[in-house]
Write a structure and sequence with these properties.
Blueprint (H helix, E strand, L loop, with lengths): L1 H14 L6 H13 L4 E5 L5 H8 L5 E6 L2 H13 L6 E5 L13 E6 L6 H8 L3 E9 L17 H18 L4 E6 L5 E6 L4
Helix pairs in contact: 2-3
The structure holds S-adenosyl-L-homocysteine and magnesium ion.
């Protein structure tokens, strides 16, 4: 297991795949244990690094993870097999915005870590699948320190992306339904819970 994790970190570095930072994944694992999370939905598997580590954080947690890129999906499947987590990690090869989950499906934790420009759409689509008392965690809210400084970015594509993350942060801050805490951990994380459940 430990070797596989190191292998995945090296692969991600080599191929430029943005897996979670170490303190970010440590936060998620602690969160799962502390809140007795049994089911996780992850949007954006990449090669399965965060899915496998989340699944390993407690004996009875199961992770469903969605990936739309075929190469990453195949690599993710391979890694899940390597650690014999086929019963713990269910990898779904589809665009998360096109997937239709069965009505009534519920997750204790929804982890958003896919296309940054789509964060609000993921949130709005998947909040209906959050179990009572559950949380939605979002990654990369600092986006390498660019968030909050979009007006100084010269590249148009990067500026548009960072602006979308800034808008998502505003969306969370002003959300009537969810209360969100922001954490300066890893590349910036948020934890959102339903207000009427506090
Ligand atoms: N959670 C992973 C890293 C994910 S990187 C980890 O920390 O180990 C983001 C991934 O999201 C990429 O592999 C990308 O292909 C995928 N992705 C982006 N948009 C998506 C979408 N709409 N549906 C499914 N996967 C998506
Ligand atoms: Mg991320």
């Amino acid at each position: 297991m430990k070797n596989l994790i190191i292998e995945m970190e090296e692969y991600a570095k080599e191929k430029n795949i943005p897996i979670m930072e170490k303190d970010g994944i440590a936060f998620l694992m602690k969160f799962i244990k502390a809140n007795n999370v049994k089911s996780v939905l992850e949007i954006g598997s990449a090669i399965g690094y965060s899915a496998i580590l989340m699944a390993s954080s407690s004996p009875d947690v199961k992770v469903t993870t969605i990936e739309r890129d075929e190469t990453n999906y195949m690599e993710c499947l391979k890694n899940v097999k390597k650690c014999s987590f086929e019963q713990k990690v269910n990898v779904v090869f589809q665009d998360a915005l096109e997937l239709n989950l069965a009505e009534g499906t519920q997750f204790d934790l929804i982890f958003i870590d896919a296309a940054k420009g789509q964060y609000k759409n993921f949130f709005e689509k998947y909040k209906y699948f959050l179990a009572p008392g559950g949380a939605i965690i979002t990654d990369n809210l600092k986006f390498h320190g660019y968030v909050g400084k979009s007006d100084t970015i010269e590249s148009k594509n990067l500026r548009q992306l960072v602006t979308k993350i800034e808008n998502y942060v505003e969306f969370l801050k002003s959300n009537e339904e969810f209360e969100t805490h922001f954490y300066d951990i890893g590349d910036g994380l948020s934890v959102s819970v339903r207000k009427n459940e506090k």
